[in-house]
Design the sequence.
């Protein structure tokens, strides 16, 4: 170590997207290494609307590893953080910053401590895969700081040990997590099937649904499913392998009907095995069910799928529309069925890419109130039957790119002089 | 035919119970004959609280077959009614009523017309297996009228062709519907596993849950499941056969923990395959989920099951308590979580066997309001969080007996002189 001793701080800031599985991961064959019982496929979401930003820093003046999430210090003692930190430190290389006159030899990384600050540009508790983006960003930014030679696929195998689905956030576009065969997990990693430009007409609308009950964590939920469901092994061994092949093909061919059918049925089957767990796990609620009915009714009326839906371990709906035109028609339907509460601002009810709202011809609450029932709905829903407040807000987004380093230092979350949150 | 021509009317009145499956029937291998893809097991419910009463009558003065359900004339043209009528007429025997001076030869039944009146002592639309009790009662009463030699098991194979689960209503207590192997359905029939006295401590509480959405009919629902679910065949061929053996043993041994575990997991798996159907079918709603959570939390706290739950093709919960003491504790919990709306009379909110309510020490609404959270609930539920009106009412009942002929003519639903509803 050179440079002015005890004084220098080296830092890297990176941004990593969240992802939503369209063929679901549910069930581990190894709890410690986080090895899944089946392959899964995901779509990466545009980091402009949903992402984690992480600044990692190292300094001889730091006396211990510390981490802040959304400005609040959190413990790094969890086994999952420790696995990631250990795996990355073991692969660290020599680092030299000539401008700052800093030189770190690879063996020094075992002794140097880290300060880490992480920030989600979306509510952490909303059930939007914040841990996937978070762990992926931690691993990616540390790999850049420590000059790892590993590519993103190899890094994904490290991120996997922090949070299974995090491995799929190392790439943009369409990503497959290969379950692997090795006992040590070395071949359980993510590969990119296609980048986000391959199928760029898709538009994604997320309904953040108000939950009344506390949810089962996905870690304990999937453990219970593997231990008690009489259907999960059949799903993992017989059903998913066929769907993976079909989904890869659907993505390659931009075949929306097949993509939608596979995404919807696989989401439903994931929730089916949750229900087959003992005691049963319910992630979807009545609002989730009503969103599905709304989409299914429309798809059936059109004769071919316009919109796919998928739900993770919570009541939020992620809807994927075949194109912008369809997305604006979907948004009209959603606002007709799930209008905001009277005291809610439309601007905070539809967030993300607001241009979809413009396309739908909706400028203010008057336009929402003037929406007429879509043609596939026979009976007009009376205003009193509409349950305002069942959806907290909608996020409009699209498939997006993978992790990037943010070289603009003003975007760092840590003060470059003291290494503490700004 | 003798007796005063064109004048005489011969009639029989019978009462038949409903039943609730504890190992579920879902999926047909033959739509016309109604042959199932797996065995099922049910508990017959006490006809004092839930039953169908049917009067069947024959007269040379009737010019066509007619039927009234709950006082309203309905069509008998449906294939299912026609199947039952055809099968029964084909087995009709000579009948003689010496007192009335009536003699009917078996070949006459093909020409004689019937008047049928049926009445449910519970709401038809509440999703409480009214068609099972109804078809069973139709077949049973016609068999008595036409002097059939067939026993109840053979009659069950006829009732089955009217409504699958109707075949299980031909016996009291605990009943198995054997799926059978023959293409003609002759061996697909019900047998009694044990009568209602075998396990008479059990108490049943039914929560009739308010539904917001129209439900998928079970006929089309199970067809869609068989056609689209990737899990239903595994359930029918691998899971259910083992559970049938275990459930028979649990009933034989009055082994409540095994009985409860099997009933709950099989109900959940039935709803899981509904969710795995495309488009997905949701029968349970948020209220159903909350009832399950309430029971599961209590069972876990006690270390051994106190109550089993099972849900048919709708949101209603059927809860089976191990004994009267447990049932009164269950009722306290249910009333704590699901109090009646302020304008509801307690007497109409808890119907059936009201002695359970007395055991629970609840005399009026003040007692309901004074209920304290059960020990397994850590956080007191605020009165504002309780959703009054989510449950329409509760029915307290128990396992009960099979079909009986009501010889008291005052209980007949048809006027003995004109053969029309009283």
Sequence:
């Amino acid at each position: 170590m050179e440079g002015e001793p005890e004084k220098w701080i080296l830092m890297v800031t990176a941004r990593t997207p969240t992802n939503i599985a369209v063929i679901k991961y549910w069930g581990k064959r190894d709890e410690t290494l986080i090895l899944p019982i089946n392959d899964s496929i995901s779509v990466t979401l545009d980091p402009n609307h949903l992402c984690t930003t992480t600044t990692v820093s190292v300094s001889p003046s730091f006396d211990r590893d510390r981490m802040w999430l959304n400005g609040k210090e959190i413990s790094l003692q969890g086994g999952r953080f420790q696995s990631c930190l250990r795996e990355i430190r073991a692969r660290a290389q020599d680092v030299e910053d000539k401008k700052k006159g800093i030189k770190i030899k690879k063996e020094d990384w075992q002794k140097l401590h880290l300060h880490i600050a992480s920030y989600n540009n979306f509510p952490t508790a909303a059930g939007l895969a914040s841990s996937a983006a978070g762990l992926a960003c931690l691993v990616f930014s540390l790999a850049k700081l420590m000059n790892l030679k590993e590519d993103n696929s190899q890094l994904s195998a490290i991120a996997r040990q922090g949070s299974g689905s995090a491995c799929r956030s190392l790439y943009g576009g369409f990503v497959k997590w290969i379950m692997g065969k090795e006992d040590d997990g070395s071949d359980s990693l993510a590969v990119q099937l296609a980048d986000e430009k391959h199928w760029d007409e898709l538009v994604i609308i997320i309904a953040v649904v108000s939950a009344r009950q506390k949810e089962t964590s996905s870690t304990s939920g999937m453990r219970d499913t593997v231990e008690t469901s009489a259907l999960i092994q059949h799903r993992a061994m017989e059903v998913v392998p066929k769907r993976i092949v079909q989904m890869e093909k659907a993505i390659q061919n931009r075949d929306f009907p097949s993509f939608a059918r596979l995404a919807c049925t696989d989401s439903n089957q994931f929730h089916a095995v949750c229900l087959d767990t003992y005691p049963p796990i319910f992630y979807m609620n009545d609002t989730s069910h009503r969103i599905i009915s709304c989409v299914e009714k429309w798809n059936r009326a059109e004769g071919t799928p316009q919109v796919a839906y998928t739900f993770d371990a919570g009541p939020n709906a992620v809807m994927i529309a075949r194109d912008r035109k369809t997305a604006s028609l979907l948004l009209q339907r959603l606002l007709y069925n799930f209008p905001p509460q009277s005291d809610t601002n439309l601007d905070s009810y539809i967030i993300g890419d607001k241009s979809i709202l413009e396309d739908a011809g909706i400028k203010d609450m008057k336009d929402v109130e003037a929406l007429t029932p879509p043609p596939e709905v026979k009976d007009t829903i009376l205003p009193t039957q509409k349950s305002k407040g069942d959806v907290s807000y909608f996020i409009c987004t699209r498939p997006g790119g993978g992790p990037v380093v943010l070289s603009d230092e003003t975007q760092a979350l840590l003060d470059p002089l003291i290494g503490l949150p700004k």
